[in-house]
Predict the 3D structure of the following.
Amino acid sequence: MLARRFGWTGLTLPAIGQGTWKIEGSREKERQAIEALQAGIEMGATLIDTAEMYGNGRAEELVAEAIRGVRSKIFLVSKVLPWNASYEGTLKACARSLKRLHTDYLDLYLLHWESNHPIGETMRALEKLVRDGSIRFLGVSNFDVSRLKEAQAALTNERIACDQVLYHLGDRGIERTVLPYCRGEEIAVMAYSPFGSGQFPPSRSRGGRILGEIGARHKRSPRQVGLNFLLRRSEVFSIPKAGNTKHVHENASASDFELSQEEMERIDRVFPAPGRDTPLGMI
Ligand SMILES: NC(=O)c1ccc[n+]([C@@H]2O[C@H](COP(=O)([O-])OP(=O)(O)OC[C@H]3O[C@@H](n4cnc5c(N)ncnc54)[C@H](OP(=O)(O)O)[C@@H]3O)[C@@H](O)[C@H]2O)c1
């Protein structure tokens, strides 16, 4: 598993983690999701992303089961919902997440997306959680550069460690401003929905055919090629969600081959980044 520096934090983390949105459901679906998370952990995908929003807390409960006995190996990320992100609300939401996750600390806690509560209140609460040892690092999600600057300016002692943003072959908007800014500030970028949240290019499409051809050369699947391409920049981490062990194996081994310059250019042409600044995409 490819590992890289997580922004300014000094930590080295796996470039490919695991998402947990929509892992809840029938007993069988949840059993498979837990099995998949555990298989991913065994393969080194120890960065796990969850949120109080996912399944109204059910995803966090399932993560707790998946990481039982191996908590210390995991870099655990959760998020506070914007409408809970007042000062008191953030502290309470974090306490609820910790309880569901059966742990006494989160490695990273993010504001899920922009909130109507003043950013200063949320940041003050996140700083308190760091001071109290409930979270190791704080960050945001779905923040463009101007929102990131506001969040940073609202902090007194801490620094933003991470911005979690939408990034897949069909939406490369972050490459315009978010990525360069985060690189300069040493803020880790966590790419969510790397497969377009179920909208991966079909094999019959032009883009799908090109991914297939490149994959065949490396004995890799089109998704592995796509994920590998997204990870070509050293500040990017990616958190695909897989509901079964077959998918998790495929995803977790997407970083152990190298695309040539020519292959990256082909992908770049068929899935181009926008030619001008665009509002940050969001799912
Ligand atoms: N901060 C935010 O606002 C935000 C927003 C969205 C997502 N996220 C985070 O990012 C994570 C990933 O994003 P996502 O869940 O939206 O979508 P995604 O990872 O882009 O795609 C997940 C979909 O791809 C399928 N899939 C995964 N691996 C596959 C494989 N190897 N072969 C075939 N199909 C495969 C999954 O099916 P199976 O389930 O059948 O494997 C699922 O339908 C989320 O789970 C969540 O943790 C954050």
Summary: The pocket of NAP is lined by residues 19-21, 49, 112-113, 141-142, 164, 192-198, 223, 239-244, 247, 250-251, 283 (CB under 6 Å). Strands lie at 3-5, 12-14, 47-49, 75-80, 106-111, 135-141, 160-166, 188-192, 236-238.
